[in-house]
Protein: protein O-GlcNAcase
Organism: Scophthalmus maximus
Amino acid sequence: KTWSMSRKRERESVMQHWGLNTYLYGPKDDLKHRLLWREVYSPEEEVQLRTLIVEAQSRGLRFVYALSPGQDIVFSSSCDLTLLKRKLRQVSDLGCQAFAILFDDIDHSMCQADSEAFSSFAHAQVNVTNEIYRFLGEPPVFLFCPTEYCGALCSPSVSKSPYLQTVGEDLLNNITVIWTGSKVISRKLSADCLAEVESVLQRPPLIWDNLHANDYDSRRLFLGPFKGREPQLKSHLRGLLLNPNCEFEANYIPLHTLGSWHRAGEEERKGEGGPEGRQMGGGNEESDYCPDRALSAALHDWMEELNQPSEGASTFRGTSSVAKLPVFPLNSSSPPSSPTKGEREPGLSNHEPPGSRPGAPSGGCRGQKAQGRALCGGKGLLSESQVRLLVGLHYLPHEHGPSAQKLLQDLTWLKSNCHLVSANSKKAPLKVDEWRGRASRFLSLCEDVAQLHCSVVGGANRAVLYDLYPYVWDLRNTALVAKAFICWLGCGKTTGADLLGVESEPWAFKGGISGEVQMLLPIGSSSELFSHPPPLFPTSRLYNIRPYHNKDKVCSHAQSSFAHPDVVGDRCLGPCLALCPEYSFILEDELGVCGCVLGISDVRSFAKRCQANWIPAMRDKYPPKGGNTQSYTQVSVRSGRGQRSH
């Protein structure tokens, strides 16, 4: 998302409170950061940028201005070098004293002029970087992001990379090199791996940490704690920057726990000064960083903010991202980018206002609430258990939280063991009870997800709503379908054999907990079931999908010239409900039944059964008038195998 200048200043204030000390400016919504890097800022843009710089410095934060000229710069061009100097001189005149030159995510090839002027791509980058560093007066903080910025991008390896060797040998020693770890998004950062890159670069690196970056997948959000980086790593680093979620309000826990990690390392270093200090650093639990303990502290503080009234601008519909709006800690800072976030693909819903719907099955009066669910609305408070559920469902890129793990484990087990409750099952009652008990717990967790969605929509903090809503919406709808699937299995209408062999293409689903749940559902590559974006205005309406029951009535409020009230329902829905009830599902909202979906597994067999059973019954129910025996027996049948009419 695009962060406004006011939000950037607000986050600077929070950073100061948490003990973080560096802010790197490199947002993708600033076209003059990367695409139009040659262009200087207008007077109006200068005012905004100067305000941000002054605000950061007034709070004791180092403001680092980053520029990414690598996509189209001609390294040997004196004109491009002059334009680069002009741009950075302009920012320097605004009060900025720290800079970063980024050459991440670009092609290694050089134009002919550069090939003639430099012996390698690394020599070209190093030559320009050194000249700019000297031009700016050798500022105390100057960062360089190499094209090979992680172990996975090094050829043939970190220790044998000619590119990194050139950077280590020729880049001026006071220029700091950015590194993301063994991968672009590293699960862990170890002292051994850092020692290896430090040896090649001939200086400690600065970590650009993508642990919480979500700009590469529009369905992922990371609310978990800063994890997998021991505070002792600081002795191998010049600094660490965290690349946060694109959504501003989603970064409270990541930054809060990062501050805890930073303070733990500071206390350890203080503890090295003597016996008293060692006691503080080594034996004091307060000085040891524990991700779970840091998460609990962050949740406690975030609860207060979540339930504070706040009117945020409804910018959650924007699609631009800030892969380079990173942040922080230690004594230096800097960044590499990730793939760009595309359009969101949340899921399945119905936004019609309450009212009559033609041809809908009815399980009761539309004025009655659906059984077991309450109306959801108004300004309420998010409970701590709901916030923990939210965090657990959107945890970290390499690790699910407890609630997500439970959701996936139960869904996998229930699907694999659905034969226990099939119609032909002869299993012991204890096994059946075990399946139904786990199913009940799974359905309860799905209901908790629905209530979480409701509470976020009805919460007092609208800024949080606008940033988190697409993700809560997406997960709510995925849980809705998973719940319907388990209810259907519980009806005993399948042996489980028809669920095997349904394998989706690898690209069919996005990542995150929603994508993993969808891959467990028997929908093949039909990911379009979940491709509906969230509504323009957040809604707190609750929906439920369940299997069709015989007690459900078929009715229709459609305007019709037929005298009999059942004729439209019998004509459009009756054959499927009578002959294939196991593939019929009902959609309910708070007011009752509001829609249905009907399926047929074998259209040819269904057509024969219609002719043999359904149509004769309809002839008896609706005697022909005037000798016309065909006006009421036309039934359209559609399936994946084609369409026939009878």
